[in-house]
Amino acid sequence: MSARYRILQPGDLDGLLNPSQAFGLEVLHGLSEHPKRLSSKFFYDDEGSRIFQQIMGLEEYYPTRCEYEILENNRGDIGEHLRGEAFNLVELGAGDGLKTNLLISRFLEKGMQFAYVPIDISAGAMNDLSESLIKKFPNLTMAGIVAEYFEALKWLSSITDKPSLILFLGSNLGNFSSSQARTFLRSLWNTLKEGDLVLIGFDLKKNIDVMLEAYNDRKGVTAAFNLNLLRRINRELGGNFSLDTFRFFATYNVFSGAIESYLVSKEEQDVYIEAVGQSFHFKAWEPIHTEYSYKYLISDIERLAAKTGFIIEKQYFDQKGYFVDSLWRVRKTG
Fold first, then answer.
1. Alpha-carbon distance values, 40 to 21, 175, 224, 240 (Å)
2. 89 in Cβ contact with 104 (< 8 Å)
3. What are the structural domain ranges in the chain?
4. Cα(88)–Cα(189) distance, rounded to whole angstroms?
């Protein structure tokens, strides 16, 4: 069975950094800062993607269930906004396809003409998704891309002029600060055409205990997800992190409206990373910041769309009001 995805190579786009070089540079810069930090975008190697699938099935992790409910109840209405044209269904982050399957199934049932284009940095996640979808939807046109989001979108725009529905599901946008979110969405806007649609998931502000439990699960899966980033540095960059000497910690910042995640050194130690040729000193109980998960008010979402060149077409909520999938249309004139 042939793979239905493409791994972008440096020759596909000018100026594309070798992935391991980019990883090493960001680790070097992040661990040299005060306080130390590592980017959450590097969570998703093959093992990290596998662990995240476990997180999405946890009892405490409500976003997946809420968004599944939203898509199950509103997939027909979402399709009505596509105006009957042939289009690309582009998903930023492949995942396991569980939620996207709801849309694909409805679109195929309605005889809509589209190609499914998942984009993910993990070849393993893309391969798993490809095999799953081939079995479930043998008539589906799929053209996945293994690359960073904007590298893939730039390449895609160079080979097709079809309109797009971009899926940025889960609460991935919440990993960005407000300024980073604006930059990301403006960059996304720049790759899209007038009238293209974007469906974005937002985790809404709610009872603080509910939010904290989602990131401090009893089984420790979220902790393993974070610690896997140190394991990845050891494997790919020749680091000598001892995972037993770090612990995971997550808290909610009421001022910024974000869950903040950290890996905390339990003792004073030095860690050497061969690929960057440098040692990094940790004091006892010194943290590495790994992730922000910002939560939103509806007014925040409305301002964000207006500032980045989009019009909100419709907002889709779960019954508890924990989560919203917001459908935006690109506006480039007027």
1. 17, 8, 14, 20
2. yes
3. 54-207+298-330
4. 16
Beta strands in 219-322 (DSSP E): 246-253, 258-265, 269-273, 278-282, 287-294, 310-317
Pull the structure tokens for residue 100: 């996207």
* Cβ proximity of 138 and 1 under 8 Å: no
Q: Does residue 72 surpass a pLDDT of 80?
A: yes
The tens digit of pLDDT for each residue in 239-294 reads 999 999 999 999 999 999 999 999 999 999 999 999 999 999 999 999 999 999 99
How far is residue 147's CA from residue 8's CA, in Å, rounded to a whole number?
Answer: 6
Q: Please state, in angstroms and rounded to a whole number, the distance separating the CA atoms of residues 333 and 116.
A: 28
Higher-scoring residue by pLDDT: 99, 32: 32
φ, ψ at 150 (rounded to 5°) = -75, -30
Which residue reads 């798993």 in tokens? Answer: 128
Residue 269 pLDDT: 99
Contact 5, 143 (CB under 8 A): yes
Cβ partners under 8 Å of residue 235, min gap 6: none
Cβ-based neighbours of 208, under 8 Å, separated by 6 or more: 252, 254
List the one residue out of 243, 215, 213 whose CA is nearest residue 229.
Answer: 243
pLDDT reading at 5 higher than 50: yes
Residue 104's pLDDT band (cuts 50, 70, 90): very high
CATH 3.40.630.10 fits 54-207+298-330, yes or no: no
CA distance 119 to 167: 10
- Residues present in the chain in total: 334
pLDDT, average across residues 71-75: 97
